[in-house]
Amino acid sequence: MEGQEVGKSTALEGNTSLLDENSERTAYYNKRLQSEPENVDLWLEFIHFQDKLFADENNRIESASTLAVIEKKLSILEKALEMNPSGLKLKFAQLEIGKTIWEEGKIDKEWETLLNRDPNNFAVWKQYLLRKQCELSKFQVSEVISLYSKCFQAIGQGKGVRDGHNRSKDFIELFHQYLSFLNQCGHVEKAVASFQAVMEFNLFCPEEYRNLDLATLTEHFEDFWNSMVPRFGEEGAKGWKYWSSLRQKQPLSENKETDDKKEEAIIKSKEKCEAWFKIETLRETQNWLPWRPDIEKGETEDNCQDLDSLVLFDDISFVLLTIEDEHALLQLLLAFFDGMGLVSRWQKDLLGIHLPFLNTSLEFCQYGLYELNQLDVLMDESNIPDQNRKYCPSLLQITSNVLKTTFDLFSNEYSLSILTLLWIHLQILHSHGNDTKSQTKILKKSMKNVLKEDRNRNNLIIWNAYVKVLQMLGKNDEALHTAELALMMTAKSSESTDLENYGSLLLCQTYCQILLNFSSTNQSASELTSSNLTKISNSLKCVSENIAYDVTNIKQLSSVEVLKIKRNFQSMINNYFADLYLKKNEIKSLSLVTLVNCAAIFDYVTSGLKSAMFVFDNALSESEALQFCDVLKENLFCVQLNIIKFHMLRSTLSLELLRRTLTLALKSFPNNVRFLKDFVELEERSNISCRRRRYFDASLKELTSPTPVIFAVLSEMKRHEQVSQAGKLGNYWLKSREIIPETGISNRIRSLFERGLQSPYCQHTPLIWRLYIHFEVKMNQIERSKGIFYRSLQQCPAVKVLYMDAIKLFGDEVFQQMVDLMVEKEIRVYLPTEEMDILFNSDSLDTVTP
């Protein structure tokens, strides 16, 4: 009894303390908001605090989503909007929270009022468009495209934007969102055609039209678009400017049709539902370019048998806008590659260079532009549903042609380097899965041809990419020899450009990593030889002294020389920071990260891990003073973690250093894929999952991206798989499988899904819904998975892959319903069921005919 009294007393004291803390926090917010009523972020912070306040008062998390807390939040927001009537963040928060209790008519009226009040505000349009994409009951592809058209026209007329730079920025962000929408609902022909039109319109505009207004320029462009000449990215395309000078019709490159033999084989060997799925997927991978009549065969638009593949001028005219800034055009190219799923926004760098994606809300994390082809960077693929669209030769050919065409149209060396690396990336994708000697030779030959071009002969960034490709192909000796030759040819001078300095640092870093066997995961293969250590220290000595590296003249460094080199590195790092304090420079920022890594590698091979960590700690501390330090700091954490993990492969080291560094990195960058992946892998080394679960439980309360939810779910799925495998191996468990302790894990996975899907950052993320559906199917909970699927359609009605998943998983039971629903919502269907019936009937007749 005394023990129970003590327990009750302790609990009461704890509750009293918690109430006092919450009261103090509430008083703090009230006091600050009285003195700073215009502080929008503070109002939003106070609204977010209500979740914790109500949860603590009721001692359960579920209460945070009750009617009481929602009404409290709306009351605060109403007061905040009285103080800040133009605060869009507050209005968006009100609409997001209010949708849980307001009638649909009221929400529509609020949005209409907002648009009428500020009809040319891009931020309002963007949120409105995203909302319209996520309403199943009212969703129609054509209606959403019509809304996009109005928004593009507002930007094109220069309304709602402050200057030319913001106009281009808004356009690229909207264009990326539009491409992704078309891609998700299967209308890739419209997406490709829109991209072709924008790039043709800006890169190949005839000189005599340059000073015309947008409307007149668009009229002239219509003549080119309706001609039968190859367009941007197609074989034989020469551009609007060339066509305008000749005004002659050129033969259109022949469209590649679906392989009829493959379809016939599918029909003969599959049931109707499965055959439809296979043929639909096959046609998806082959039909990228819009259909156009072949004038040599006397065809007209009336000959088109698939109207969805016919893209008229009216379908693309509204996206036409003049963009003069070269950097903006580069971002437009990247938006296309990202929208088509060829380059992931999670991919922080490409063969050593940072991709300059527009650093705005273009991330669209809450509306789920995460594709399954990006999951290979996350973790084991065993729990990941199959991806419908693979990298197909036709798409890679189109994008390769696009890049080849743009090489002569960009003058900036940095832009050209990125375009070249994108082209190399496409060649690697093209050779993916073809590990034959001939494919390797083709890839190497392509790389050598790139290096022979005048613009790349002295570009060490491209040489570094070639070295990395050789390393990827397992040709380490050749990669090492190539890096040495390139470093020896490097001419050092005080007049070197920032890009040249970056290329030199990048190549030296790669050279040292090859000598260290940095990419190896085999502990025995990571032993360092004295010869390699000497080469590393000598190459880094040349970097610190800004002289060319001579592999024939290497020697052991004395202690005095080592100290001098360390001082030189520190002086160089300080100079880079001083330059960045004065002016933001993307190339210098990248160079600084590489320089710090080179300095840390030198300290590592001469003085050990502790000395290398000191270099990183100093650089990270210094980066805090920079206003734009986020990318710099994130990259510094990446290279620091690389060295720690490398050291752990070849030496015994406590996990504490890695755990502490990861904690700091995740505190600053909770959505970084690499950091989350390293964290999950670290915690997998022990059978105790409490630390990992505590972290994800905390991160799910403060979501700003679906990434932590995805990692939390996949890590538990992997744990579930391990427990299941252990049960299969243990004979004493096989006799009574029901006692295998895996039900707790499966229920936790469901809990993670449900908690994540309560967040607006996850509700419209197709990937999370797909993982949830496939997990329940894997657990043999078919009815539950169907329920989840229908919930997903309410949030992501435009995403074709969800409908395809249902057909694949649930078969004939939902087949006709899903196809009819896709047709009703105007989602792209390549094989109508009527055509499927004809194909099956003709095949049946062929079978019975003697």
UniProtKB/TrEMBL annotation:
Belongs to the NRDE2 family. SMART domains: HAT. Gene3D superfamilies: Tetratricopeptide repeat domain. Keywords: Nucleus. Its main location: nucleus. This is Protein NRDE2 homolog. GO terms for biological process: negative regulation of RNA catabolic process; regulatory ncRNA-mediated heterochromatin formation; RNA processing. One of its GO terms (cellular component) is catalytic step 2 spliceosome.
